[in-house]
Amino acid sequence: MFEKLFKIIFSNKILLPFYHHVSEKQPIHTKHLFKSRNISHFRSDLDYFLKHYNPVSVDDIYRSIFKNYKLPQNPFLLSFDDGFSEVESIVAPILKEKGLPAIFFLNGDFIDNKDMMFRCKASILIEINNISPILREQLDTIKDLFQSFDLEYTNFKDSVKSISYNKKDLLDKLLEVGEFDIESYLKNKKPYLTTDQILSLKKDGFDFGSHSMDHPYYGKISEDKQIEQTLNSLEKVQNIVNSKLKLFSFPFSEEGVRESFYEKISPYLDLTFGTFDNKFDPIKFSLQRFAMEDYGDRISTTEESVKSFYKRSILRIPFGKSSVKRV
Ligand SMILES: [Zn+2]
């Protein structure tokens, strides 16, 4: 019922579900951040989308916005953030089998496993502590470290989870205390896509975009830094893939990003992607996506995820909150 109503109300809206990765056993660097889909669950998501929607490419979307190209009714396009290597080993073969296009958004600093996103380091620390809780003598060192960053220590999990982007160096110090060799982990596990993998995915027809250099909260950094993060990552990705369309997705959210940012980056980008579900966006080249992964303890079925997205979208209408508002 909800689905039918939604499809009538939003039939011209492009459905843009996004993920990070798909895995049978979630790696420790994302295990405590979100719940990833396993293969059969991901396949059921795709079957659902294919049954109710029509796949379109990012080029189709661009042409529909700027060149009057007519998209089919109920169009959809998948995208994947953060450039995790599972998009090459697990996701891409399934997408190819189903004939589905997708955009992979990459962080400039993490390509080729040169570094890891600060939140992923927090996830590893929580896992280390779950397996072997920190020793008493380490606890004092850890509390001192938090204090040296002007942060309060409550309990390990909550304190580590609350470490923000501008205090991310603390995570490296904590990994040292936990004797976790992040460089070996990056070298051996290769959590992120390598240049070769990116080129092979490009050959298969997938699209790429940038996702900042090292994944800050844009609303919490200066506009100059936002622009620097955006343009540097775009250049880094373009140096590898040299795409016709220049695409960007906001790390975390675009909450707090001012209109002036869009004015300044518009000469360099063709389309930007946010995470405001399917809110109407007054900026022509800005599109909004919705998260398919869960952030709580349980994993929703495909129908539950999509229904909750429908509900949020419909409930916003009477409250006048169905448009993106910026300052
Ligand atoms: Zn991200």
Task: Describe, in plain words, how this protein is organized in 3D.
The chain is globular and about 65 Å long. The model has no long low-confidence stretch (mean pLDDT 93). The protein has helices spanning 2-9, 28-31, 39-52, 58-66, 86-98, 118-131, 136-148, 156-161, 169-177, 182-189, 195-203, 223-241, 259-265, 302-316, and strands at 17-19, 54-55, 75-76, 78-80, 102-106, 207-210, 247-249, 271-274, 286-288, 290-291. The chain has 14 helices and 10 strands. It is 45% helix and 9% strand. Helix 6 (118-131) packs parallel to helix 9 (169-177) and helix 7 runs antiparallel to helix 9. The structure holds zinc ion. Zinc ion binds next to loops. Zinc ion is lined by residues 81-82, 211, 215, 251.
Blueprint (SSEs and pairs):
Elements: H1 2-9, E1 17-19, H2 28-31, H3 39-52, E2 54-55, H4 58-66, E3 75-76, E4 78-80, H5 86-98, E5 102-106, H6 118-131, H7 136-148, H8 156-161, H9 169-177, H10 182-189, H11 195-203, E6 207-210, H12 223-241, E7 247-249, H13 259-265, E8 271-274, E9 286-288, E10 290-291, H14 302-316
Parallel strand pairs: 1-4, 1-10, 2-3, 4-5, 5-6, 7-8, 8-9
The structure holds zinc ion.
Zinc ion binds at residues 81-82, 211, 215, 251.
Give the tally of structural domains.
Answer: 2
Helix content: 40-55%
Mind telling me the C-alpha Rg? 20 Å
Structural class comes to alpha/beta
Known CATH architecture of the largest domain = Alpha-Beta Barrel
Cross-sheet strand order for the largest sheet: 6-5-4-1-10
User: Can you identify the CATH class of the largest domain?
Assistant: Alpha Beta
CATH homologous superfamily caption of the largest domain: Glycoside hydrolase/deacetylase
Gross morphology: globular
Uncertain residue ranges: none
> Kindly state the mean pLDDT as a whole number?
93
Bound molecules: zinc ion
The count of helical stretches stands at: 14
Percentage of residues in DSSP E strands: 5-15%
SSE string = HEHHEHEEHEHHHHHHEHEHEEEH
